[in-house]
Amino acid sequence: MSKKMKLHLIESVRCKSCGLCVEACPKQTLAIGSDLNPQGYAYVIQVAPEKCIKCNVCRIVCPDVAIGVIEAN
Ligand code: SF4
Ligand code: SF4
After folding, report:
1. Counting ligands in written order, which one lies closest to the CA of residue 46?
2. Residue 9 pLDDT level (bands cut at 50, 70, 90)
3. pTM
4. Angstrom distances, CA of residue 45 to CA of 8, 32, 34, 62, 63
5. Which of 11, 15, 31, 51 is buried most deeply by CB count within 10 Å?
6. CA 62 to CA 20: how far, in whole Å?
7. Any atom of ligand 1 within 6 Å of the Cβ of 66
C-alpha cells in the first residue's frame, strides 16, 4: 500500500496579500512575493520550502482558503 504524500499548495489567485500566514508560519517559510495575481494582489510564496513541516497552520489562519497542505498518492 502506498503512503500518501503531503503537498503544500498555494492558490495564488485567491490570495489577498493579508500576510496572516506569513506571520503564523512557525518555520518562516512564507513571504509576500513581488508578482501580482489577476486581482492585483501580491500573493504569498514559499521562500524556504525545504523548511516546511506541513503543519497546516497556514491553512487554518488563511481567511481566503488560499494555502495549505493536501494529501496525495
Ligand atoms: S504548512 Fe506549516 S510550516 Fe508549512 S508553510 Fe504552512 S504554516 Fe509554514
Ligand atoms: S493568509 Fe491567505 S490571503 Fe493572507 S497572505 Fe496568506 S495565503 Fe494570502
Report:
1. 1
2. very high
3. 0.93
4. 11, 6, 9, 14, 16
5. 15
6. 7
7. no
What's the pLDDT score for residue 51? 96
CA 33 to chain centre: 12
Atom of ligand 1 nearest to the CA of 24: 7
- Cα 14 from Cα 63, distance rounded (Å): 10
- Give the closest ligand to the alpha carbon of residue 18: 2
Instruction: Identify the structural domains of the chain with CATH numbers, from first to last.
Output: 5-72 (3.30.70.3270)
Substitution site in 11, 43, 54, 71 for ligand 1 pocket (most atoms within 8 Å of beta carbon): 54
63 CA to centre of ligand 1 in angstroms: 15
Cα 33 to middle of ligand 2, angstroms: 11
pLDDT at 3: 80
